[in-house]
Amino acid sequence: MPVYLAWLVRVGYLTGQRLPAGDVARWVPPILLPPAAVLFCVMAGTTWWMSAVARTPSPLREPWIAATLVFTAVTSVFCGVAAFDDPDVSAGLLSVVITGLGMAGLFLIPAARSRQLPDIVRRRSADSSDDPTA
User: Which residues contact 13 (CB under 8 A, 6 or more apart)?
Assistant: First the structure.
């Protein structure tokens, strides 16, 4: 995750520098993209984790949650590709891999920090061992 956030700052800066010199929007990608990625991924991870604890259906199918995650992924990959002088397939693959790993790490922060994680793991493993079709 720290690599992902540092990467977002760097590619946001490089992407912003491609805009005209007097444009204020040059500083928007490096300043807003990393906090937005953290906010959206941790928010989605928190709602997912709370539903797992409460044994309710996953809220990840809600349009607003999916939209925030898609926005974060698309913006991150776009800035990653746009930051290269000569973007090619390897730049796109690098952007996709770093974005995927970073977003997954941010998404799982609420579950990893939860004190209820051991109980949920035990409960889920007991539920799956009781199921004869599994």
Answer: 29, 30
Q: How many CB atoms lie within 10 A of CB 64?
A: 11
Q: How far is CA 14 from CA 2, 27, 29, 91, in A?
A: 18, 10, 9, 14
Model pTM score = 0.81
Number of C-beta neighbours around residue 57 at 10 A: 8
- Taking only the tens of pLDDT, the chain with its 134 residues reads 788 999 999 998 998 888 888 888 888 888 988 999 999 999 999 998 888 888 888 887 888 888 999 999 999 999 999 888 888 899 899 999 999 999 999 999 998 998 888 888 888 788 776 655 65
* Residue 80 DSSP code: H
Residue 59 CA, chain-centre distance (Å), reads 16
